[in-house]
Amino acid sequence: MKLGQTILAAALAFGTGTGVALAQEEIIFGISATPTSLQGQTAHEFARRANEKLGDKAVVKVFDSSQLGKDKDMLQKLKIGTMHMTLPSSVMPEIAPEYAIFDLPFLVADREHLARIDDTFFKDVLVPAAEAQGYRPLAVWENGFRHITNNVKPINTPADLEGLKIRTPNSSWRVAMFEEYGANPTPMSFSEVFVALQTNVIDGQENPLTNIAGAKLQEVQKYLSLSNHVYSPAYPTVGVAVFEKLDPEVQSVLAETAQEMALWARETGGSAEGDLLDELKAAGMEVNTADRQAFVDASAPLYEKFASEVEGGQGMIDSVLSLAGGS
Q: What is the mean pLDDT of the chain?
């Protein structure tokens, strides 16, 4: 029996006839984030809204906290049809290099800028790039503005990262960023980070506040340095071949609801940051604000790398920057 379909009842005899009832088709939505993180909250709210619209057509089921595998595993499952949806973030440049635009530090000014990027750049550039590899992102949800935590010292400038083992996602671009800053980047899946910090395999990591709090990293990290070095989107993504086999009405509900959730995710992320910071401080984390200009200055080679290595890279940078400030 294929994943996503179950038999509710079979050959129920009612005197003169036999009835066979088939279950709703299950839309399997696997994510790596915890349920209390913004990605987790958004995925579960998406499922609630979609299921209200789907009625007896289908039911979306969310499997969070890497229950169905790591991000790359789940992307592969979309291809072979054992899952319907997943929510990749920093791994997307490994699928299509155009997504590394979001690994350029300080490129996204604020959530209003991101909304303008979503309205144009997403559908015109990022969706076609993923579809060429067999994937279709349905929307841009929020992962968030990223910050640095560690157990050694406050991070004020890139020089403070010299030699520190900092976990990054499995993204070659994020590795290049922290190498440029002088750290010793150590890629690993998010599900492994808590234990790696607890056992001193790594010194620190970088993530949005929602992921730091959602994974309870405040229990194993002393210093939180507010750097806002990258804004990471998250992309509710389907495998094109599997998605197009679904009932067209189901496809429409999933696509429309994913778009609905983009604004919800940005608004929820923005409104929660103050409370999350208070929560992390109350847990004993020492908080400082990093020297933005020092990090901006150290980031110039990353822009040069993108412009030279990604086809049309400089034009992409110029296009995104032109959307800042409402222009």
A: 92
